[in-house]
Design a protein that fits this description.
With 471 residues, the chain is mainly alpha-helical. It has three domains: 163 residues, no CATH class; 90 residues, Pyrimidine nucleoside phosphorylase-like, C-terminal domain (Aldehyde Oxidoreductase, domain 3), CATH 3.90.1170.30; 113 residues. 65% of the residues lie in helices and 6% in strands. It contains 16 helices and seven strands. The strands form two sheets. It has a four-stranded mixed β-sheet, covered by helices on one side. Strands 4-2-6 form a three-stranded antiparallel β-sheet, with no helix packed on it. Helix 1 crosses helix 5 and helix 3 runs parallel beside helix 6.
């Protein structure tokens, strides 16, 4: 990438992620400083009793000293506070997940805090630089008010940032991002088809850029494919969130004559937005993966399993919401398009849960494994077609990992619930495998032949994660 283009990309990313709001607020404070200077100039021309009173109450030398103290104090307090907050953020990102940094930068409130403190200091320095002995000090008094507001805001900022670092707040924030991102992605999912309808040799479209697919514009697709009807079909080989390298295949173009295919192939990349980093606000799969990473980090040795259970609960909630909402009618978004795009949102959730079942073997956190199994049991009946087949195959390969855990009540409930679900969806073969794991888990935990753990589940027994105890 040429240096000039690389600089533009970096600037756009920085402005989008963090810098735009603080810079806008700093410019606002610069404008306020200009207004206060003009007000001082206008008021200094009227030498009345009020003007003389202000000059006696607020001598110019005192105002300059006060502005100097305010400016240096703002810089010092802000620097110390931000240093402490960055330490807290770094600690949380280490114990929870690196996504904490992304969330901190993208929150509008945090951007506004930074913008206010930077703007307030800039305002004070500007007023101090242009102050004149004959002015009554409108800018200086405004600086005092703004500095007092900064000190009050500092308390709110400290509490707000610390509250954001709570693992449950991190999980809830990612969950909200996933819900909004799914709504933003819905036009593409609703207007596309899951399987191609045209055969024949395709025209392949490859990318010339490197980065993540952050969006596929249905509006541009509609303009590009207008008038082609069903003669041309675009089959995307990538999904939002995929990482592309130079020369990767983005889409296959089928149907029509060679000229039309060439026209569509030459312009299809304009419909695919590629960026250097993923954004959970527009990429629901990325939000799901972030929840999986949070649970993964909390699932390691010497970590609190409650954080992992909270992330698993968020994944279960997302799956239930998206399954209940379904896919709206394409007419709500302008009608169907001859575009093939495979929606794998539910598969991402299943993959994250199956990964947790596997990784829990290293930390021996049976609570997390049981919660993941129970959540998979809730999700499987909601899936249809290929999504369910992929989920069952993934689960079948991960089930042997459960044998490394202790024979706790939680594991018994999780396996029993999973077995009942597999029977319900017609997978009796896999249900029998789960049924055999109860006695095996008890024997390998040294509990002998005390009965089948899975028989303890009845309609009155809670199936969620319980406190740690053996049978």
């Amino acid at each position: 990438m040429p240096p000039a283009q690389d600089l533009r990309v970096r600037w756009r990313l920085s402005a989008t992620e963090f810098l735009f709001t603080p810079l806008l607020m700093v410019l606002g404070f610069v404008g306020l400083a200009a207004v206060s200077v003009f007000a001082d100039i206008a008021l200094s021309r009227s030498h009345g009793a009020v003007h003389d009173l202000f000059l006696r109450l607020f001598p110019h030398a005192n105002l300059l000293r006060m502005l100097s103290v305010i400016a240096s104090g703002l810089v010092t307090v802000t620097t110390l506070t931000l240093s402490a907050l960055l330490v807290a953020i770094s600690h949380t990102s280490t114990s929870v997940a690196p996504v904490v940094f992304d969330q901190f930068l993208r929150r509008r409130a945090n951007q506004a805090y930074f913008g206010y403190f930077a703007g307030c200091a800039t305002f004070t320095y500007l007023v101090m630089a242009v102050s004149r002995p004959e002015w009554i000090g409108v800018g200086a008094m405004l600086a005092v008010v703004l500095a007092a507001g900064a000190l009050v805001l500092l308390v709110f900022m400290g509490y707000g940032v610390i509250d954001q670092m709570r693992p449950t707040s991190v999980v809830r924030s990612i969950q909200d991002l996933a819900i909004r991102a799914r709504l933003r992605q819905m036009p593409l999912v609703a207007r596309s088809r899951r399987r191609r309808t045209l055969d024949g040799e395709p025209t392949s479209v490859t990318t010339r850029e490197t980065g993540y697919v952050i969006d596929i514009s249905t509006a541009r697709l509609q303009d590009l494919l207008r008038g082609t009807g069903e003669e041309i079909e675009v089959e995307f080989r990538v999904r939002i969130g995929d990482l592309l390298a130079y020369g990767d295949i983005v889409a296959h173009i089928r149907g029509g004559d060679a000229g039309r295919r060439a026209h569509v192939a030459g312009n299809i990349l304009s419909c695919v937005m590629i960026d250097r980093s993923r954004n959970a606000g527009v990429d629901p799969d990325h939000a799901v993966e972030q929840l999986g990473h949070v649970a993964w980090a909390a699932n390691s040795t010497r970590q609190n399993p409650d954080v992992a259970v909270a992330a698993i609960g968020a994944l279960r909630d997302l799956s239930a919401r998206w399954a209940a909402a379904g896919v709206p009618d394409a007419e709500l978004y302008g009608g169907p398009l001859p575009v093939v795009y495979e929606d794998v949102a539910q598969r991402r959730i299943v993959t994250a849960l199956v990964d947790l079942v596997v990784v829990s073997t290293s930390s021996r956190q049976h609570q997390t494994c049981a919660a993941a199994l129970s959540t998979l049991a809730d999700i499987l009946p909601q899936l249809e077609g290929r999504d369910r087949d992929v989920a069952v195959r993934s689960l079948q390969r991960a089930l042997p990992a459960t044998l490394s855990h202790v024979a706790s009540v939680e594991m018994g409930h999780g396996l029993a619930k999973l077995r009942a679900t597999l029977d319900e969806i017609g997978r009796e073969d896999l249900a029998d495998e789960v049924r055999e794991m109860g006695p095996r888990l008890a024997r390998e935990s040294g509990l002998g032949e005390e009965g089948d753990m899975l028989d303890s589940l009845d309609d009155s027994t809670p199936t969620g994660p319980l406190s740690f105890r053996f049978r």
